[in-house]
Amino acid sequence: MAPIQLTAIITPKPGKAERFLELFNMCAQYVQANEPYVHRYELHRGIKDLNDGKEQFVVLEGYDDQEALDKHMKCPPVLVMLEALEKEQLMDIQLIRTAASPGIKSRI
Question: Which CATH number fits the domain that encloses residue 28?
């Protein structure tokens, strides 16, 4: 199967950014320790002063295939995060599935 790449643009509701970061960190720690089929799980925080004062995050995720993504979405911390996102109405999110395109891969 083909690799899966996801990009999420996240805009937290006012006062909810730290709660989102807490949940994301919990997921990231779990991914690092338990999910070798997740090859990218990065969070980038927007610079408020350069983004009209808006708090925003970009999350970049990469999975071996659809099966890996499905498995990740069922792991305990992700389920906790999804429940919190719904109950606490933490943010607006735009999710984009991407494929490899022309350009330069990270040289880091």
Answer: 3.30.70.100
